[in-house]
Amino acid sequence: MTVPESFKSQRGAVRLGLADILIALILLGVLLFVSYLQFPAYRQSASPPPSPSGGATAKPK
After folding, report:
1. How many structural domains is the chain composed of?
2. From the CA atom positions of the chain, what is the Rg in Å?
3. Which range of residues forms the domain containing residue 26?
4. pLDDT tens digits for range 3-61
5. Domain for residue 26, yes or no?
6. 54 assigned to some structural domain
7. In b/e form, how buried is each residue of 27-57, taking b as 16+ CB within 10 angstroms?
């Protein structure tokens, strides 16, 4: 069973071209950049917890 020539020239859903891969990479880069801007708190180091105030810091004798 052979495939007619008219079907060979049509682009299938599975075949990816160079333009498709470039567009996917550009979109991925845009999404990563936007997520980097959206969540700046994840880039900062954690600050130490606040120390308790008042008599809680005094050790019993």
Report:
1. 1
2. 29
3. 16-41
4. 666 655 566 667 778 899 999 999 999 999 998 888 876 666 666 667 766 555 556 66
5. yes
6. no
7. eeeeeeeeeeeeeeeeeeeeeeeeeeeeeee
7 in a structural domain: no
Please state, in angstroms and rounded to a whole number, the distance separating the CA atoms of residues 60 and 56. Answer: 10
Q: What pLDDT is stored for residue 55 in this prediction?
A: 53
Residue pair 32/24 in contact (Cβ under 8 Å)? The answer is no
pTM value surpassing 0.85 = no
| CA–CA separation, 3 and 13 (whole Å) | 17
What's the pLDDT score for residue 40? 74
The rounded distance, in Å, linking the Cα atoms of 33 and 45 is 20
C-alpha distances in angstroms, 50 versus 10, 46, 57? 66, 12, 12
